[in-house]
Amino acid sequence: MKKRLTTLRHHPTVAIGGAILLLLICIAVFAPWLGTQDPTAIAPIYRTRPPSAQFWFGTDMLGRDVYSRVLYGTRVSLTVGFSVAILSTIIGVLIGVVAGFVRWLDVLIMRIMDGFMSIPNILLAIALIALWRDSMQTVIAAITIVEVPRVVRLVRGLVLSLREQPYVEAAITAGAGPWRIMYRHIFPNTVAPLIVQGTYILGVAILAEASLSFIGAGVPPSTPSWGNIMAEGRTLWQIRPHLIAFPALFLSITILSVNMLGDGLRDVLDPRMSSEH
């Protein structure tokens, strides 16, 4: 364990990706103090101003400070991303373990998961959001439902593979119950793949939230988010490119940092990937 932690600290992609993601988390936490203006304050006299000493990222069509709105957008994106990653992993593990251990439920559960996965993710999320009121909680719930089947398939496959291992068969022979086997032998061996999968879901959720907000199906327009900011500025991007450039830059850097962190974790935590490199 100590060897893996040391390897993680010295792995370049983990270090760089983790540092950037940590910086973004700090920006999200301290957005009220880092912002220069109220992100929702409307000032028509300052509308569509280019970047300047007063407005670092310029202003939008309502005169709102783009810099402050982008900082608060970091808070929205990371909240959605981490919430979806944590919830979908917990729910997926519970369902996946049951599917892997209870044979008569396996077929039913996996057919339901296949049904969800047969629908394009964004379309399914839009359909779920349409059933409820638009809010951050609705976006988190919709994207979580979309991502749960991926975790279920991963956990189920791991459980089916681990069930055939000699130490699990020895535990069964010794009279250990199914819950004890899952807690002592199955779950600990799924942690590393789940961490890697969690980083993938984090990036997908952030991108999905931005996409949904961009088309008007995400968080309410009054909530500063990168998707909303780009959607509001797309009609003026040719003459005021800053309206899209800055939120798009933050979104790209966030996805890049998450992907770098996930790739590094995969290399370190998956021995097969490590041996290939």
Folded structure, characterized:
This protein is an all-alpha fold and 277 residues long. The protein has one domain (2-276): MetI-like (MetI-like fold, Orthogonal Bundle), CATH 1.10.3720. Helices cover 73% and strands 0% of the residues. It has helices at residues 2-10, 12-29, 31-34, 66-101, 103-117, 121-131, 136-162, 166-173, 178-186, 191-214, 226-233, 242-269, 271-276. The longest helix is centred in the N-terminal third of the chain and has 36 residues, at 66-101. It starts with a helix and ends with a helix. Residues 272-277 have low confidence and may be disordered.
Set down the secondary structure blueprint.
Elements: H1 2-10, H2 12-29, H3 31-34, H4 66-101, H5 103-117, H6 121-131, H7 136-162, H8 166-173, H9 178-186, H10 191-214, H11 226-233, H12 242-269, H13 271-276
Helix pairs in contact: 2-4, 2-12, 4-5, 4-7, 4-10, 4-12, 5-7, 6-7, 7-10, 8-9, 10-11, 10-12, 11-12
